[in-house]
Write a structure and sequence with these properties.
Blueprint (H helix, E strand, L loop, with lengths): L4 H7 L4 H5 L5 E4 L8 H8 L5 E3 L3 E2 H6 L1 H7 L9 E6 L3 H11 L5 E6 L4 H5 L10 H14 L6 E7 L4 H14 L4 E4 L12 H10 L4 E4 L5 H11 L3 E4 L1 H5 L12 H14 L3 H12 L5 H7 L5 H12 L2
Parallel strand pairs: 1-2, 1-9, 2-4, 3-4, 4-5, 5-6, 6-7, 7-8, 8-9
Helix pairs in contact: 3-13, 6-8, 8-9, 9-10, 13-14
Protein backbone atom coordinates (compact mmCIF):
# COMPACT_ATOMS: atom_id res chain seq x y z
CA UNK A 1 0.00 0.00 0.00
CA UNK A 2 2.45 2.59 1.17
CA UNK A 3 6.17 3.22 1.46
CA UNK A 4 8.18 3.42 4.66
CA UNK A 5 6.02 4.41 7.62
CA UNK A 6 8.54 6.60 9.41
CA UNK A 7 9.25 8.58 6.27
CA UNK A 8 5.54 8.98 5.62
CA UNK A 9 4.94 10.10 9.18
CA UNK A 10 7.64 12.75 8.89
CA UNK A 11 5.76 14.12 5.89
CA UNK A 12 2.56 14.26 7.86
CA UNK A 13 3.56 17.56 9.48
CA UNK A 14 2.42 19.38 6.32
CA UNK A 15 -0.75 21.22 7.17
CA UNK A 16 -2.88 21.67 4.06
CA UNK A 17 -4.60 24.62 5.75
CA UNK A 18 -1.31 26.52 5.51
CA UNK A 19 -1.86 26.65 1.74
CA UNK A 20 -5.10 28.55 2.23
CA UNK A 21 -3.37 31.07 4.48
CA UNK A 22 -0.54 31.74 2.01
CA UNK A 23 -2.32 34.65 0.29
CA UNK A 24 -2.12 32.78 -3.04
CA UNK A 25 -4.95 30.98 -4.81
CA UNK A 26 -4.46 27.26 -4.07
CA UNK A 27 -4.09 25.18 -7.26
CA UNK A 28 -5.64 21.75 -6.82
CA UNK A 29 -5.78 18.50 -8.80
CA UNK A 30 -9.30 17.03 -8.52
CA UNK A 31 -10.15 13.47 -7.52
CA UNK A 32 -10.52 11.59 -10.82
CA UNK A 33 -11.54 7.95 -11.10
CA UNK A 34 -8.63 5.94 -12.59
CA UNK A 35 -6.60 9.07 -13.25
CA UNK A 36 -5.51 11.03 -10.15
CA UNK A 37 -3.26 8.19 -9.02
CA UNK A 38 0.28 8.50 -7.66
CA UNK A 39 2.08 8.71 -11.03
CA UNK A 40 -0.16 11.51 -12.34
CA UNK A 41 -0.03 13.36 -9.00
CA UNK A 42 3.77 13.18 -9.23
CA UNK A 43 3.59 14.77 -12.69
CA UNK A 44 1.26 17.68 -11.84
CA UNK A 45 3.25 18.48 -8.67
CA UNK A 46 6.24 19.17 -10.97
CA UNK A 47 4.12 21.84 -12.70
CA UNK A 48 2.93 24.11 -9.87
CA UNK A 49 0.03 22.03 -8.51
CA UNK A 50 -0.21 22.76 -4.77
CA UNK A 51 -2.56 20.04 -3.54
CA UNK A 52 -3.66 16.67 -4.94
CA UNK A 53 -6.60 14.35 -4.28
CA UNK A 54 -6.71 10.60 -4.75
CA UNK A 55 -9.51 9.12 -6.85
CA UNK A 56 -12.70 8.50 -4.84
CA UNK A 57 -12.40 5.34 -2.70
CA UNK A 58 -15.42 3.54 -1.22
CA UNK A 59 -14.67 3.70 2.51
CA UNK A 60 -16.52 0.50 3.44
CA UNK A 61 -14.49 -1.60 0.95
CA UNK A 62 -11.28 0.13 1.99
CA UNK A 63 -11.83 -0.66 5.68
CA UNK A 64 -12.94 -4.24 5.03
CA UNK A 65 -10.39 -5.39 2.49
CA UNK A 66 -6.60 -5.33 2.52
CA UNK A 67 -6.70 -6.04 -1.20
CA UNK A 68 -8.80 -2.90 -1.77
CA UNK A 69 -6.33 -0.84 0.29
CA UNK A 70 -3.38 -2.10 -1.74
CA UNK A 71 -5.01 -1.44 -5.10
CA UNK A 72 -6.76 1.85 -4.25
CA UNK A 73 -4.17 3.76 -2.25
CA UNK A 74 -0.51 4.19 -3.08
CA UNK A 75 1.66 7.07 -1.99
CA UNK A 76 5.29 7.96 -1.31
CA UNK A 77 7.19 10.58 0.63
CA UNK A 78 7.08 13.19 -2.15
CA UNK A 79 3.30 12.87 -2.53
CA UNK A 80 2.30 15.73 -0.21
CA UNK A 81 0.12 17.51 0.62
CA UNK A 82 -2.33 14.72 -0.20
CA UNK A 83 -6.08 14.42 0.39
CA UNK A 84 -7.72 10.99 0.26
CA UNK A 85 -11.29 11.22 -0.99
CA UNK A 86 -13.83 8.74 0.36
CA UNK A 87 -17.38 7.79 -0.55
CA UNK A 88 -19.18 7.03 2.71
CA UNK A 89 -22.62 7.13 4.30
CA UNK A 90 -21.82 6.03 7.87
CA UNK A 91 -19.82 8.12 10.29
CA UNK A 92 -17.91 5.27 11.93
CA UNK A 93 -16.90 3.71 8.61
CA UNK A 94 -15.53 7.07 7.46
CA UNK A 95 -13.64 7.42 10.75
CA UNK A 96 -12.12 3.95 10.40
CA UNK A 97 -10.98 4.75 6.85
CA UNK A 98 -9.57 8.11 7.99
CA UNK A 99 -7.65 6.41 10.78
CA UNK A 100 -6.03 4.00 8.29
CA UNK A 101 -4.79 6.77 5.98
CA UNK A 102 -3.98 9.35 8.66
CA UNK A 103 -0.29 8.39 9.04
CA UNK A 104 0.25 8.66 5.27
CA UNK A 105 -1.95 11.56 4.09
CA UNK A 106 -2.67 15.14 5.10
CA UNK A 107 -6.46 14.96 5.15
CA UNK A 108 -9.60 13.25 3.94
CA UNK A 109 -12.46 14.53 1.81
CA UNK A 110 -16.04 13.28 1.88
CA UNK A 111 -17.52 13.02 -1.61
CA UNK A 112 -20.92 14.75 -1.63
CA UNK A 113 -20.83 15.55 -5.35
CA UNK A 114 -20.57 12.40 -7.48
CA UNK A 115 -23.77 12.31 -9.60
CA UNK A 116 -23.26 8.80 -11.02
CA UNK A 117 -26.26 6.53 -10.69
CA UNK A 118 -24.43 3.69 -8.93
CA UNK A 119 -23.09 6.06 -6.24
CA UNK A 120 -26.47 7.70 -5.64
CA UNK A 121 -28.19 4.28 -5.50
CA UNK A 122 -25.74 3.20 -2.78
CA UNK A 123 -26.39 6.37 -0.77
CA UNK A 124 -23.01 7.89 -1.66
CA UNK A 125 -21.92 11.02 -3.50
CA UNK A 126 -24.30 13.79 -4.48
CA UNK A 127 -27.34 12.41 -2.64
CA UNK A 128 -25.57 13.51 0.58
CA UNK A 129 -26.24 17.17 -0.22
CA UNK A 130 -29.84 16.35 0.73
CA UNK A 131 -28.73 14.92 4.10
CA UNK A 132 -27.04 17.86 5.85
CA UNK A 133 -27.41 16.32 9.33
CA UNK A 134 -25.63 13.14 8.20
CA UNK A 135 -22.81 15.15 6.58
CA UNK A 136 -22.46 17.18 9.78
CA UNK A 137 -22.36 13.99 11.85
CA UNK A 138 -19.69 12.38 9.64
CA UNK A 139 -17.48 15.48 9.73
CA UNK A 140 -17.82 15.79 13.50
CA UNK A 141 -17.02 12.13 14.10
CA UNK A 142 -13.78 12.31 12.10
CA UNK A 143 -12.83 15.56 13.82
CA UNK A 144 -13.36 13.94 17.24
CA UNK A 145 -11.63 10.64 16.51
CA UNK A 146 -8.49 11.73 14.66
CA UNK A 147 -5.86 12.99 17.11
CA UNK A 148 -3.79 15.00 14.65
CA UNK A 149 -5.17 18.58 14.68
CA UNK A 150 -3.43 19.31 11.36
CA UNK A 151 -5.29 16.50 9.59
CA UNK A 152 -7.92 18.19 7.40
CA UNK A 153 -11.52 17.07 6.92
CA UNK A 154 -13.14 18.60 3.84
CA UNK A 155 -16.20 17.96 1.67
CA UNK A 156 -16.84 18.31 -2.06
CA UNK A 157 -20.41 19.18 -3.04
CA UNK A 158 -22.71 20.09 -5.90
CA UNK A 159 -25.32 22.81 -5.55
CA UNK A 160 -29.11 22.59 -5.08
CA UNK A 161 -31.59 24.22 -7.42
CA UNK A 162 -32.56 26.22 -4.32
CA UNK A 163 -29.25 27.73 -3.23
CA UNK A 164 -30.54 28.41 0.29
CA UNK A 165 -30.35 24.67 0.91
CA UNK A 166 -26.70 24.61 -0.20
CA UNK A 167 -25.84 27.53 2.06
CA UNK A 168 -27.55 25.72 4.96
CA UNK A 169 -25.54 22.55 4.25
CA UNK A 170 -22.27 24.52 4.14
CA UNK A 171 -23.04 26.37 7.36
CA UNK A 172 -23.86 23.08 9.12
CA UNK A 173 -20.61 21.54 7.87
CA UNK A 174 -18.68 24.59 9.03
CA UNK A 175 -20.26 24.31 12.50
CA UNK A 176 -19.17 20.64 12.62
CA UNK A 177 -15.54 21.64 12.00
CA UNK A 178 -15.05 21.08 8.27
CA UNK A 179 -11.69 22.49 7.07
CA UNK A 180 -12.83 23.74 3.65
CA UNK A 181 -15.57 23.08 1.11
CA UNK A 182 -15.11 22.45 -2.61
CA UNK A 183 -18.11 23.49 -4.67
CA UNK A 184 -18.74 22.11 -8.14
CA UNK A 185 -21.02 24.83 -9.46
CA UNK A 186 -23.65 22.59 -11.04
CA UNK A 187 -26.70 20.75 -9.70
CA UNK A 188 -26.98 16.95 -9.69
CA UNK A 189 -28.91 16.98 -13.00
CA UNK A 190 -26.53 19.34 -14.80
CA UNK A 191 -23.66 17.89 -16.81
CA UNK A 192 -22.39 20.23 -19.52
CA UNK A 193 -24.41 23.33 -18.75
CA UNK A 194 -22.45 26.46 -17.78
CA UNK A 195 -21.09 26.46 -14.23
CA UNK A 196 -22.95 28.73 -11.76
CA UNK A 197 -19.97 30.76 -10.54
CA UNK A 198 -22.36 33.24 -8.92
CA UNK A 199 -23.60 30.41 -6.66
CA UNK A 200 -20.03 29.64 -5.55
CA UNK A 201 -19.58 33.34 -4.70
CA UNK A 202 -22.80 33.31 -2.62
CA UNK A 203 -21.55 30.27 -0.68
CA UNK A 204 -18.15 31.90 -0.18
CA UNK A 205 -19.82 34.97 1.28
CA UNK A 206 -21.98 32.91 3.65
CA UNK A 207 -19.24 31.01 5.50
CA UNK A 208 -15.87 31.92 6.97
CA UNK A 209 -13.83 28.81 6.05
CA UNK A 210 -12.00 28.46 2.69
CA UNK A 211 -14.04 27.65 -0.41
CA UNK A 212 -12.61 25.93 -3.50
CA UNK A 213 -14.27 26.51 -6.89
CA UNK A 214 -14.56 23.61 -9.33
CA UNK A 215 -15.93 23.30 -12.86
CA UNK A 216 -14.80 24.04 -16.44
CA UNK A 217 -11.34 25.46 -15.75
CA UNK A 218 -9.11 24.67 -18.74
CA UNK A 219 -6.25 27.20 -18.47
CA UNK A 220 -4.43 29.24 -15.85
CA UNK A 221 -6.26 32.27 -17.23
CA UNK A 222 -9.60 30.51 -16.61
CA UNK A 223 -8.45 29.81 -13.05
CA UNK A 224 -7.67 33.50 -12.51
CA UNK A 225 -11.05 34.51 -13.99
CA UNK A 226 -12.94 32.04 -11.78
CA UNK A 227 -11.07 33.34 -8.75
CA UNK A 228 -12.17 36.88 -9.65
CA UNK A 229 -15.79 35.80 -10.22
CA UNK A 230 -16.17 33.68 -7.09
CA UNK A 231 -13.59 35.07 -4.62
CA UNK A 232 -12.73 31.39 -3.97
CA UNK A 233 -9.59 30.55 -2.01
CA UNK A 234 -8.64 27.68 -4.31
CA UNK A 235 -9.36 26.34 -7.79
CA UNK A 236 -9.79 22.62 -8.41
CA UNK A 237 -9.27 21.26 -11.91
CA UNK A 238 -10.04 17.84 -13.41
CA UNK A 239 -10.23 17.54 -17.22
CA UNK A 240 -8.16 20.67 -17.79
CA UNK A 241 -5.22 18.97 -16.06
CA UNK A 242 -5.74 15.71 -17.94
CA UNK A 243 -5.47 17.66 -21.20
CA UNK A 244 -2.55 19.75 -19.95
CA UNK A 245 -0.84 18.64 -16.72
CA UNK A 246 1.41 21.74 -16.96
CA UNK A 247 -1.63 24.07 -16.95
CA UNK A 248 -0.99 25.50 -13.48
CA UNK A 249 2.54 26.45 -14.52
CA UNK A 250 1.02 28.73 -17.19
CA UNK A 251 1.45 26.58 -20.31
CA UNK A 252 -1.35 27.01 -22.86
CA UNK A 253 -0.88 23.48 -24.16
CA UNK A 254 1.08 20.46 -22.95
CA UNK A 255 4.81 21.12 -23.47
CA UNK A 256 6.93 18.25 -24.83
CA UNK A 257 8.96 18.31 -21.63
CA UNK A 258 5.78 17.41 -19.72
CA UNK A 259 5.07 14.48 -22.07
CA UNK A 260 8.65 13.28 -21.57
CA UNK A 261 8.23 13.64 -17.79
CA UNK A 262 5.04 11.56 -17.93
CA UNK A 263 6.79 8.78 -19.84
CA UNK A 264 9.64 8.74 -17.31
CA UNK A 265 7.35 8.84 -14.26
CA UNK A 266 4.89 6.26 -15.61
CA UNK A 267 7.67 3.81 -16.49
CA UNK A 268 9.28 4.32 -13.09
CA UNK A 269 5.95 3.67 -11.32
CA UNK A 270 5.03 0.69 -13.47
CA UNK A 271 1.82 2.38 -14.63
CA UNK A 272 -0.43 -0.14 -16.47
CA UNK A 273 -0.38 0.36 -20.23
CA UNK A 274 -4.02 1.44 -20.64
CA UNK A 275 -3.64 4.21 -18.07
CA UNK A 276 -0.23 5.27 -19.46
CA UNK A 277 -1.67 5.43 -23.01
CA UNK A 278 -4.93 7.20 -22.04
CA UNK A 279 -3.02 9.99 -20.28
CA UNK A 280 -0.91 10.49 -23.40
CA UNK A 281 -4.04 10.62 -25.59
CA UNK A 282 -5.46 13.37 -23.37
CA UNK A 283 -2.18 15.30 -23.30
CA UNK A 284 -1.62 15.11 -27.05
CA UNK A 285 -5.24 15.82 -28.05
CA UNK A 286 -4.59 19.50 -28.83
CA UNK A 287 -1.15 19.10 -30.37
CA UNK A 288 -1.74 16.25 -32.83
CA UNK A 289 -3.59 16.09 -36.15
CA UNK A 290 -6.58 13.84 -36.84
CA UNK A 291 -4.34 11.56 -38.87
CA UNK A 292 -1.75 11.28 -36.08
CA UNK A 293 -4.51 10.48 -33.54
CA UNK A 294 -5.78 7.67 -35.78
CA UNK A 295 -2.38 6.02 -35.56
CA UNK A 296 -1.43 6.88 -31.98
CA UNK A 297 -4.74 6.06 -30.31
CA UNK A 298 -4.76 2.44 -31.51
CA UNK A 299 -1.22 1.57 -30.40
CA UNK A 300 -1.40 -1.42 -28.09
CA UNK A 301 1.88 -1.70 -26.20
CA UNK A 302 4.27 0.48 -24.25
CA UNK A 303 7.07 -0.28 -26.69
CA UNK A 304 4.90 0.79 -29.65
CA UNK A 305 4.10 4.08 -27.88
CA UNK A 306 7.76 4.70 -27.05
CA UNK A 307 8.77 3.98 -30.66
CA UNK A 308 6.08 6.38 -31.92
CA UNK A 309 7.21 9.18 -29.58
CA UNK A 310 10.82 8.58 -30.57
CA UNK A 311 10.08 8.59 -34.32
CA UNK A 312 7.76 11.64 -34.27
CA UNK A 313 9.14 13.78 -31.46
CA UNK A 314 12.65 12.52 -30.89
CA UNK A 315 11.82 11.46 -27.33
Amino acid sequence: MIGDTTEAKECRRKDPMDLFHSGQVVKICAPMVRYSKLAFRTLVRKYSCDLCYTPMIVAADFVRSGKARDSEFTTNKGDHPLIVQFAAKEAQVLCDAARIVCPFADGIDLNCGCPQRWAMAEGYGACLINKPELVKDMVRHVRNQIDNPKFSVSIKIRIHEDLKRTVDLCQKAEAAGVSWITVHGRSIEERHQPVHYDAIKTIKQSISIPVVANGDVKTLKDAENVHQLTEADGIMVARGLLANPAMFAGYEETPFKCIQDWVDIALEHGTPFTCFHHHLMYMMERITSKQEKKVFNVLSSTSAVLDYLNDHYGM
